[in-house]
Fold this protein.
Amino acid sequence: MTLAKADNLSTSKDQPTRDLILDAAARLFTARGGAVRLEDVAEEAGVSRQAVYLHFGSRTGLLVAMAQHMDSTGALPDLLTRVFDASTATEALDAAAALHAEYHPMIYQVARVFMVGRYEDEALQAAWDERMESRRNLYHTVVERLEEEGHLASVWDIKTATDFLFALTSWQLWEQLVIDRGWSTEDYLNHIRTVIRQTLVFVTPV
């Protein structure tokens, strides 16, 4: 069942129950990752398992709706505002790096569910692709602004610089450095920001 169909199962009158389920799911998946059943979500939310099905249709429907709910009600809107309200393109670049350094730890367990499940679930794959496209569009906007302000290093064009920024802030690299190698969020941000600036930004000779 697609998210659109799942949404149709819920009326505005049922929105408080829907939000209750989404909040419960977010708590559980953030804490446990993929080891969460619909029964667990229902128990955490204080509703029946049938109520979860009525609102979301399936575990996948719940996961997709939950990710969107976390994005809209969590820290992401403020982090995005920092990028778009930055005074200069280089400040926007720094804010984009900070966004992912700060947001990755918040939704890591949920992201892992999508990263693993997308290989076997078309709906999760579509949701993951949509999220990655949103990331790429954000970077494109920042890099485009960098070029407009005359600060994009000459070895790059907008497309390749966007691709590089997308890869450098990927979940996989963050996981290797922070989860596997034990880097702190501060160390990760400082080093990633430095690499991005030294690689992409043209510095006017003194």
About this structure: Confidence is low (pLDDT under 50) at residues 1-13. DSSP finds eleven helices and no strands in the chain. The CA atoms of residues 108 and 143 lie 26 Å apart.
